[in-house]
Design a protein that fits this description.
3 domains, C8orf32 fold, four-stranded antiparallel sheet, six-stranded antiparallel sheet
């Protein structure tokens, strides 16, 4: 019963690891990792109870495991199963052929053999091709660590029963993957539940058997309590991330009658942010402040390497550095709908995401002013390396289940107190054709917020929008028509503010007919919303000047800019540039096949870079994290190894030390008879040790000392003193490494043990 339950819990723990891997790694949705894990842990557990050498057992694990991986990854099991299912029909046809004195039809088996050969050939071609993006190759790559970890867990459990140690590699890899990718931790909770159960099961069955009925009942009750508590802990830990306190508070806040009944008073919500460097509470169109040449911040994205040339042939990618977005236009300027402020700790994922139409851009930002608490980024913010505060009009936590946050979450802006930070964000990878084919049906929240206009919009503005888009049949062409028209207006900073009571867009389009970015962006949003295109105004900074010597963007105050984003169903927000003095944004008509099917910077193991994916801040940091994890695991393994060898114990008896001497000695003095006395065993062991090696010269004396103290403890009326026991521990700590070295000489160098005639004569009297 104990063995079956232990194996079952091991399978649960490793199946949870597989579930975590499949949930975190791209292209592993259909991977057959579970059969590999079950086979490996079962084989390891079975061999663990047998007196099989580790070398032979692990050879079997690896060779048979690789064969199972080959069968599962190439899907040959499907062919085998189909072959087995076809055997009865073949037997019937063979009998009929014999009765007709005809040769049996072997076409079925020929076809199956051809299918096996084709699948095997395809598998090895993919594997040797080295394309780590291929799902078969990626499945095979992940099969290897799962095979090794599962074999280790089964083998060590069968051998020693120390479940904490045997499941440590599995838990460590599991936790690392989930932390790396930001995926749900529920699978890890299941693994921990299995670990707790295993600990309880091992302790219960580890108790000495008792015939007393009350003891047996106590053991049964303890077993049930262990299972119940383990299940409860795993369940609570798994459900905790699902329960959102903010959602509950938000629902209470939206229920006026409940607020009244509970006496809750809602905290006033900030409607907009005050920011330093002259930005007002509302982004009013005001040309009074002329930007300077002062550097605001620098950004490194790592998309291009550093160059020793000031002018390079490769054009730097273009980015807009976001600061704030506005949704409410009142005819004179911009403001924001009510917002909710949420705090995020360093590296915390901001929203969930899983799409192939976006690439990850990693940014290293250095602000010049310590008083600047604004966060700058490009695209859709996913995670920052420093704590941040984000103001949401619609936060990801408030969205219904199943709604994609990148398409529906709505951010005003973000703040950070840090002068230096790193941030990962998403930029859409789309073509003009994809946007032309997007649906004109928008989510209710998007339509309500980003199609609204004040009733004071003049009719001539509405008419102009209709005229510009009369020939356009899709959202993208409508937006491009408006953008192209506005870019015909000349750019100028020497313009006046709109007269009191006149709409800003109307003033720019029909009276001024010249202006700066705020006028262009405001007018495009108004025209776009008029023809049913959800759009918003974004303020921040243009790309700035790219310095190839340092591979960084230098953004100055004069790069302050406003632009427009238009919402496309299934894609999200896409940037448009209506300002005449800025380069036009040109999308490719079609995307290359490889761009449309992958996210930028996927790793060999397929850990998706999304909110369920790692947003690592540099390869060097990842290597440091992995190295620290490996060092931690190695340290734990080292402590466990030293404890099992009796090097960290404060031994109460010499007998506990001598058991280690005897166990290691038998690996050198093999086939030692069981009837030998300790003295004879020590004498024969000394003859097997090659004392010509300088480090082994003291080994015989140390063996003699520990053997003598062991015999004294057993047979002498004089007890072993505390000092003698302490000295024995010190001697054993030295002798252990000498015996280990002697075993290594025999095992790896093939040196024959040399007999020391003089020493054997002096030590033969030990018995």
């Amino acid at each position: 019963m104990k063995k079956i339950l232990t194996l079952l819990l091991l399978i649960i723990a490793l199946s949870a690891l597989v579930a975590g891997v499949k949930a975190s790694v791209k292209s592993l949705e259909d991977a057959r990792l579970v059969p590999v894990a079950i086979f490996a842990v079962t084989a390891g557990y079975t061999f663990g109870f047998r007196h099989t050498s580790a070398r032979w057992a692990w050879s079997v694990f690896i060779l048979s495991g690789l064969f199972v991986i080959f069968i599962e990854a190439s899907r040959l099991d499907e062919v085998f199963w189909k072959t087995i299912q076809g055997i009865p029909q073949f037997q019937l046809q063979s009998i009929q052929s014999l009765l007709k004195r005809e040769a049996p039809d072997l076409s079925f088996f020929r076809g199956q053999f051809s299918e096996i050969a084709a699948r095997a050939s395809a598998f090895f071609n993919r594997l040797l091709g080295g394309n780590t993006q291929n799902s078969t190759v990626r499945e095979t790559i992940w099969d290897i660590p799962i095979l090794l970890i599962a074999s280790w867990a089964g083998w060590q459990t069968g051998r020693r029963g120390d479940v904490v140690t045997v499941l440590l590699p599995s838990i460590a890899l599991h936790g690392f993957i989930l932390n790396y990718t930001g995926a749900s931790t529920f699978s890890l909770q299941i693994a921990v539940f299995a670990l707790i159960c295993l600990m309880g099961v091992q302790k219960i069955w580890g108790l000495a058997p008792q015939e007393d009925r009350r003891v047996n009942e106590a053991q049964r009750d303890t077993f049930l309590a262990v299972v119940t508590i383990s299940f409860a802990l795993g369940l609570v830990a798994g459900l905790t991330p699902v329960i959102s306190v903010r959602d509950i508070a938000r629902k209470i806040n939206g229920n006026d009658s409940l607020n009244t009944m509970l006496g809750l008073e809602a905290k006033p919500v900030r409607t907009s942010w005050a920011a330093p460097a002259g930005l007002p509470l509302e982004h009013l169109i005001d040309p009074q402040r002329i930007p300077s040449e002062s550097i605001v911040f620098t950004v490194k994205t790592g998309e291009l390497p550093t160059s020793d040339k000031r002018i390079t042939d490769e054009e730097a990618p273009r980015h807009y550095w976001r600061l704030l977005t506005y949704d409410l236009y009142n005819g004179q300027g911009w403001s924001s709908s009510p917002t909710e402020n949420l705090s995020y700790r360093a590296k915390q994922v901001v929203f969930q995401f899983n799409s192939e139409r976006y690439k990850v851009v990693h940014q290293q930002v250095e602000k010049t002013s310590k008083q600047d608490d604004r966060l700058y980024w490009t695209g859709s913010l996913m995670r920052a390396s420093q704590p941040i505060n984000v103001n949401w009009r619609t936060s990801p936590e408030s969205l219904p289940k199943g709604v994609t946050p990148i398409l529906s979450a709505d951010m005003l802006g973000a703040l950070t107190r840090k002068q230096s930070y790193e941030v990962d964000s998403l930029v859409p990878i789309v073509s003009a054709n994809q946007l032309r084919n997007s649906s004109q049906t928008y989510p209710e929240e998007i339509r309500k917020r980003y199609l609204t206009l004040p009733e004071s919009i003049p009719q001539r503005v509405l008419d102009l929008a209709s005229q510009l888009t009369a020939d356009a049949t899709n959202p993208y062409d409508k937006a491009k028509a408006i953008e192209a028209y506005l870019r015909t207006y000349p750019y100028s900073l020497d313009v006046s503010a709109p007269p009191a009571g006149q709409d800003a867009a109307d003033y720019f389009l029909f009276d001024l007919k010249t202006g700066y970015c705020d006028y262009y962006a405001t007018s495009m949003v108004v025209l776009a919303r008029t023809v049913g295109l959800p759009s918003l105004l974004v303020i921040g900074y243009s790309s700035g000047i790219y310095n190839p010597l340092t591979a960084e963007y230098v953004v100055r105050e004069l790069n302050a800019h406003s632009w427009v984003e238009v919402y496309f169903s299934g894609v999200g927000w896409v940037e448009f540039e209506p300002t005449a003095n800025q380069p036009a944004i040109t999308l490719p008509e079609k995307l290359p096949q490889e761009v449309g099917t992958s996210i930028v910077s996927p790793t060999t193991f397929g850990l998706e870079v999304s909110t369920e994916a790692r947003l690592g801040y540099s390869i060097r940091q990842d290597l440091y994290l992995l190295a620290a994890l490996l060092i931690f695991i190695a340290a734990l393994a080292g402590v466990w190894f030293l404890r099992t060898q009796g090097l960290l114990h404060a031994h109460e008896t010499i007998g506990s030390i001598y058991r280690h001497v005897y166990r290691h000695g038998k690996r050198i003095y093999k086939n030692a008879p069981l009837h030998e006395t300790p003295s004879v065993f020590a004498s024969n062991l000394q003859e097997k040790i090659d004392i010509t090696h300088r480090w082994l010269v003291s080994a015989p004396d140390e063996i003699n000392l520990l053997t003598r103290l062991y015999l004294q403890e057993i047979y002498s009326p004089r007890p072993i003193s505390k000092d003698e026991r302490a000295h024995a521990v010190k001697v054993w700590r030295k002798l252990f490494w000498r015996l280990l070295f002697a075993r290594a000489i025999l095992a790896f160098r093939g040196l024959s043990p040399r007999k020391n005639p003089d020493y054997s004569k002096t030590s033969s009297h030990a018995g």
